[in-house]
Structure prediction request, 307 residues.
Amino acid sequence: MTKANPKKALPIPSLRNIQTFIEVANTGSINQAADFLNITASAVSHQVSSLEQFIGKKLFIRSGKGVSLTPIGEKYLKEVSGAVSVIGRATDQVINDIHHEHLRIHSAPSFGLLWLIQRLNKFRQEYPDLKISLTCSYENLQFSRDNLDIDVRHGLPEWPTLNVKTIKNEKLIPFASRDYLVGKAIKVPADLLQYELIHSDSTLVNWNTWLAWYGVEHHNKNYYFSFDRSYMSIEAARMGMGIILESNLLADDYLRQHNLVPVFNDDRSMAVAAHHFVLPHVNEQKEKVKVFLAWVEKELSASGFAM
Prediction:
């Protein structure tokens, strides 16, 4: 007599075939199940037949009116439906677990330093169980390879396969410190040519474009200071080293603290769409990502921006 092996693996059919079986049982129709599963009716029939062959029992009675469960099929549906629900709940918990994983964010350096990091302590106070891992660079990172949840990018939004949430109401505006502007008669854009203009290499619009937009022609301005990071240009302006053409988003805290002020009393801005929260569509399902993006939208809204 053969002794039973307690460690023998249980027969487990294809989960795809199980899902198809459940959908056919619920709808009573091969065609409706195919529409719901977004596959062909022949594929549904093949998957059901494969499951029946695997277990060696008929699960459906087929007729011109559709399909109906056999007694064995009814019993099997009751058992496997609960098992699939357990698998689904377990998978959802893993995807949306915000307590045992970090939220991994990569950011363009100036946005990370000037806007995001200034507000992360507020986020921690609201969501103390969600840990943040933030890296900043201009590297071309990949979400899977570098294990990223969100990438905050600067530039033109040219990522058609990804979900791109662009920050709205961002403008480039001439700013300077109050002390620097004392005694300087700057009424119109052409007046700027008499003073020190700080050049930012990274902005989407530079001084030449801005001056031409406001009708200042044939200018040949040499820039004593030129920086390749916006946070360097903004800090230089705060120190009274000259006038910058920079983002009102990045300079928001400097403006609130009156470390910088707009050079002109009237609106001399140029609208840009320069900063974007970028992520794969699958990452939108993660609860920790939803929580963070909702918090970002709230913070942006408080300063007159949107996403």
Summary: The chain has a mean pLDDT of 90. DSSP finds ten helices and 13 strands in the chain. The longest helix spans residues 71-95. The first strand starts at residue 60 and ends at 63.
